[in-house]
Design a protein that fits this description.
2 domains, single chain, 18 strands, 5-stranded antiparallel beta sheet, alpha+beta, 8-stranded antiparallel beta sheet, Murine Class I Major Histocompatibility Complex, H2-DB, Chain A, domain 1, Immunoglobulin-like
Length: 360
């Protein structure tokens, strides 16, 4: 059964923000774990992957291969960063942090999230750099003050040390606000047609049982910059609503759900609700009316199967009872017949014996 989808368009242009984010992870204390891995992500799509221990540098998209083919220096920069600069820097920082925290043994990891954003319409640029140690936020660079911010008390000593290295802080600023945005634009030149495509979702209303929440499920959409919510009489509602995470599909698209508790609603109340899907950077929405006749569920099918199963069990039981009765009846008949036959035989013998006696 097909749902009725209403697509509403708005002529107002919305801002288009692009991002290039590098995720780096260095580790120490586990011999079988690679010491450094990195991933470059463009607009939420994995673009480059590197593994220093196994000397792997892989473009993860066809358009990234085109970028590297057109700019061999950029490819060499990534190799140098992945195989030499970053592994060495991460190793030295982990050693320093272990000494600071008196950690002589054990497995430890150092992670960074660094990159930039570029607003296509206004040209506005911004950068960010954040460190985490052993799974907890540690330090963050404030580009406005060009100083490090402690994200936990134990990071104060490292903050003072890194603040004193003004040259390193300045290099970070140049990379995050100048080099990174230009590199992002290079990726967008080759990958924009793929990155900026918009694939609308298939939206369904799902429900496990009549008392379960109704799930508005959208799947197959791209990009992942999307929101979903329930409305009542055109107004967004929060009570009784549970919003799920955006999850990836195997084909590179995404899926998400938003649940609404309808256990106390009448059919008339349900008709006042609708589910809204919207790409966050595109003024287009998909509206799905809450109509109980359009809800897809497997509980009816399950009940039908259970009833069919119960009928089959009943038939089998009746059949077994019939067979048992038939067997018992046959046994009774046979026994009765045997009892009737034995006296007759005796009488015949007695008659025969009587005849013999008279003859004699």
């Amino acid at each position: 059964m097909t749902l009725i989808l209403l697509l509403l368009f708005c002529s107002v242009s919305s801002p288009v923000r692009h991002s290039l984010i590098n995720y780096f992870t260095g580790s120490a204390g586990a011999p079988n774990v690679t010491q450094f891995v990195g991933v470059a992500v463009v607009d939420g799509v994995e673009a480059v992957y590197c593994d220093s221990s196994n000397k792997i540098l892989e473009p993860r998209q066809d358009w990234v291969k085109k970028v590297f083919d057109n700019d061999s220096q950029l490819l060499e920069w990534y190799k140098h960063e992945c195989f030499n600069i970053q592994p060495s820097a991460f190793r030295a920082r982990i050693i320093s942090l272990k000494q600071q925290f008196n950690q002589s043994e054990g497995f430890h990891i150092l992670q960074t999230r660094s990159g930039c954003e570029w607003e296509e319409n206004t040209g506005e640029k911004s950068g960010f750099l954040k460190y985490g140690y052993d799974g907890e936020d540690f330090l963050e660079l404030d580009l406005n003050t060009l100083s490090w911010a402690s994200l936990k008390p134990e990071a104060e000593a490292t903050k003072r040390s890194w603040d004193a290295d003004r040259n390193r802080t300045k290099l970070n600023e140049v990379f995050l606000t100048d080099i990174c945005p230009e590199r992002l634009k290079s990726f967008l030149d080759c990958g924009n047609s793929s990155l900026q495509r918009t694939v609308p979702p298939s939206v369904s209303l799902l429900q496990k049982t009549p008392s379960s929440p109704v799930s508005c499920h959208a799947t197959g959409f791209y990009p992942d910059r999307a929101v979903m919510f329930w409305r009542k009489d055109g107004e967004k509602v929060h009570e009784g609503v549970e919003i799920g995470d955006i999850l990836p599909n195997d084909d590179g698209t995404f899926q998400m759900s938003v649940n609404l508790n309808v256990s106390s609603f009448t059919p008339e109340e349900c008709s006042r609700f609708d589910c809204v899907f919207q790409f966050s950077d595109v003024e287009k929405i998909i509206v799905t009316k809450l109509n109980k006749t359009l809800i897809r569920t497997n509980w009816k099918e399950k009940m039908t199967k259970e009833k069919s199963s119960n009928r089959a069990i009943t038939v089998i039981v009746v059949l077994l009872v019939f067979i048992l009765v038939a067997v018992a009846g046959f046994a009774f008949y046979k026994k009765k017949k045997e009892k009737h036959f034995t006296p007759s035989a005796v009488n015949i013998c007695e008659l025969s014996e009587g005849k013999n006696e008279v003859t004699t």
